[in-house]
């Protein structure tokens, strides 16, 4: 099966939006973050597209449970494009879907967090607090109104993204490969940025040779400032490729390694 005959309906979009608003973060975990939540919000539609219990459904379910993490306020844009691709291409769109998800989740995350997680609360909070200090209850209703508008925005974006995604795979097929390639490159870039910013430890050992103290981390910084996190990440990827190794076992290895390095005063933050 390469292409489904099923076309998504308004009811499908309603179901996805309800799950998105109410359950998207329920399966959040440190290993794959929003991966299970992403699968859950579109699972009924995947069953309609690929058929219940089919090998194609199982393959795409595995695909959608991979690492995914972006802003709660923009993730359905990615979902809409994803579903348009799968509806038109079926499992043949697997690589394109992976590229779009990986490439877009990074850029959308800071935009959504900055605007809806920081900017809007700061502005509306200031206005509401000012009104409250003057004994005016309007601030409460102002907050409610803004929240309703934000949720309407979240509700509408899914279908808009789906329609644009459909145009992409029907009238702009020649540009699809370029988009996928660009998204994949951006995804690699974002993974590199995550490694450099989220994996934060360094050499704290400073051996002495005579009267001179050797600052190992300073030497690494002169060669490659974030070399230690990069080498550590490469080692974990290599470890995950070993037979019998799972993500849970790798996490345990990391914990033991971190405790040992801290105990002997070799690595720290």
From TrEMBL:
Keywords: Membrane, Transmembrane, Transmembrane helix
Record protein name field: PTS fructose transporter subunit IID
Short name of any one Pfam family annotated for the protein: EIID-AGA
Transmembrane segment boundaries: 111-132, 138-155, 176-203, 223-241, 250-268
Record's signal peptide: none
GO BP field: phosphoenolpyruvate-dependent sugar phosphotransferase system
One GO cellular component, as annotated: plasma membrane
Protein's organism: Streptococcus gallolyticus
């Amino acid at each position: 099966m390469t292409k489904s005959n099923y076309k998504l309906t308004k009811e499908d979009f309603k179901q996805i939006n309800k799950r998105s608003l109410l359950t998207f973060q329920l399966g959040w975990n440190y290993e794959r973050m929003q991966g299970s939540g992403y699968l859950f919000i579109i699972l009924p539609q995947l069953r309609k597209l690929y058929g219940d219990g089919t090998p194609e459904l199982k393959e795409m379910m595995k695909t959608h449970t991979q690492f995914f993490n972006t802003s709660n306020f923009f993730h359905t844009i990615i979902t809409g494009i994803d579903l348009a691709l799968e509806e038109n291409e079926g499992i043949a769109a697997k690589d394109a879907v992976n590229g779009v998800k990986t490439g877009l989740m990074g850029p959308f995350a800071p935009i959504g967090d900055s605007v809806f997680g920081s900017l809007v609360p700061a502005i509306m909070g200031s206005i509401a607090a000012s009104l409250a200090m003057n004994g005016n209850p309007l601030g409460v209703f102002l907050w409610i109104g803004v929240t309703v508008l934000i949720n309407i925005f979240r509700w509408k974006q899914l279908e808009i993204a789906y329609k644009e995604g459909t145009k992409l795979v029907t009238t702009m097929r020649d540009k699809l490969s370029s988009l996928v390639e660009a998204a994949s490159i951006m995804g690699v870039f974002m993974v590199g940025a995550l490694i450099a910013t989220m994996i934060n430890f360094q050499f704290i050992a400073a051996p002495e040779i005579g009267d001179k103290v050797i600052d190992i981390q300073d030497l690494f910084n002169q060669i490659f400032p974030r070399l230690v996190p990069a080498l550590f990440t490469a080692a974990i990827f290599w470890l995950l490729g070993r037979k019998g190794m799972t993500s849970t076992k790798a996490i345990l290895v990391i914990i033991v390694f971190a405790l040992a390095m801290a105990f002997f005063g070799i690595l720290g933050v």
